[in-house]
Write a structure and sequence with these properties.
alpha/beta; binds S-adenosylmethionine
Length: 209
């Protein structure tokens, strides 16, 4: 009788996707090759698991174009591509996250486009092609609130159907949420998961006008 493959201690499985743990030999190898690896894209952050949980209830239509800003290793986009048939682009200011995103996408048999650039540079015309704009754990410094608000405003006016920003609840996120609730009719959703860890996060949701 064929035996089931043993779960890898270097991978975590959630909602049908495999997430890389820092202990994975290829992660360790990539980290060794990248001296001076920058800006926080150095693991899968917990807000992305909470956003995946939300999206498992409120998914996106198959074939929807999705942009994941500050994607890091890109797990939420991989989940949408693999489990909802979305066409996903990950964007990150830090080009060194790309091999981690590619490795994680390869493990999940899916293809994610990647752009190494700042989310500030996204123009209204480009944003118009996306059904969903999302980001997890990307509003962690005070200086990020204003550019993220301007980006969200451009995306809403371009016709993006939904903008979803998940966060542990840091002050710059609440400042962003206050602006979006007041000026763009946004909602903030609190969501808790029990697995892989018990974790409560917040999701800012801005819908099309
Ligand atoms: C805390 S990590 C979160 C990564 C990923 N979203 C996750 O949840 O696992 C923040 C990411 O935002 C990226 N980032 C920071 N500022 C950015 C900017 N202005 N434009 C694009 N990406 C940015 C960082 O390089 C990093 O990968």
């Amino acid at each position: 009788m064929p035996t089931k493959p043993l779960p890898s201690p270097h991978l975590l499985t959630y909602k049908g996707v495999s997430a890389l743990r820092a202990s994975h030999p290829r992660v360790r190898q990539l980290k060794r090759q990248q001296q001076g690896h920058a800006a926080h894209g150095n693991k899968v952050w917990r807000s992305s698991f909470v956003l995946m949980d939300y999206l498992s209830t409120w998914g996106v239509p198959s074939g929807a174009q999705v942009l994941d800003i500050g994607c890091g290793w890109g797990l939420t986009g991989i989940y949408l591509a693999k489990c909802h048939g979305a066409i996903v682009t990950g964007l990150d200011i830090d080009a060194s996250v790309e091999p981690f995103l590619r490795l994680q996408a390869e493990l999940n048999n899916c293809n994610i486009a990647f752009q190494a650039r700042e989310f500030e540079s996204l123009k209204r015309k480009e944003l118009a092609q996306y059904h969903t704009l999302m980001g997890t754990d990307i509003c962690f410094w005070d200086e990020m609130t204003a550019p993220l608000f301007n980006l969200i405003k451009r995306a809403q006016s371009a016709g993006t159907q939904q903008i979803l920003i998940a966060d542990p609840g840091r002050q710059p996120f609440w400042d962003l949420a206050d602006l979006c609730v007041e000026k763009l009719g946004a909602d903030v959703i609190s969501r808790t998961i029990d697995k892989p860890w018990k974790s409560q996060k917040y999701i800012l949701k801005v819908s099309a006008n």
